[in-house]
Design a protein that fits this description.
Elements: H1 8-19, H2 26-39, E1 49-52, E2 55-57, H3 59-70, E3 74-76, E4 82-84, H4 95-105, H5 111-122, E5 130-132
Antiparallel strand pairs: 1-2, 1-5, 3-4
Helix pairs in contact: 1-4, 2-4, 2-5
């Protein structure tokens, strides 16, 4: 596997998933990345988000994960957990700082808490409406 074939955004995504203390489910990962983009200064990951049925949703994030799965870097567990199967030599240096700052802002990163935190951005808006576009 050659890391040269990875986009900068994919490297950042892999680094964030690797820095998380637990393997997140896909829905929770969507919310974590969204909250990091919204509230964590050291996070410069850019995904466009729309309102989905379960909160913020990025098609581009899914596409990156599917591409990473085809390349053998990521796999999905039984319960849609995102598991990194390949360690990057040169991972994104801000990943640890981003997750540390995320944990400071949101000590309980459970799906219920992440849903509650993202609700103000999605309540009363139609499914499919853009919440955040790439910077």
């Amino acid at each position: 596997m050659s890391e040269a074939k990875l986009t900068e955004r994919q490297i950042k995504l892999i680094s964030i998933v690797s820095a998380l203390p637990e393997k997140p489910r896909l829905t929770l990962l969507q919310k974590i990345v969204f909250l990091c983009m919204e509230r964590v200064k050291s996070c410069d990951v850019n995904y466009p988000y729309i309102i989905g049925h379960y909160g913020p949703f990025s098609v581009d994030l899914i596409n990156d994960l599917e591409d990473l799965e085809k390349k053998g870097i990521v796999k999905f567990g039984k319960e849609k957990q995102v598991i990194v199967t390949y360690r990057l030599k040169d991972k994104w240096p801000n990943a640890e700082e981003t997750i540390s700052e995320f944990k400071t802002c949101f000590p309980d990163d459970s799906s219920i808490i992440a849903s509650a935190l993202t609700s103000p951005n999605v309540l009363g808006r139609p499914v499919g409406e853009f919440i955040k576009t790439s910077r």
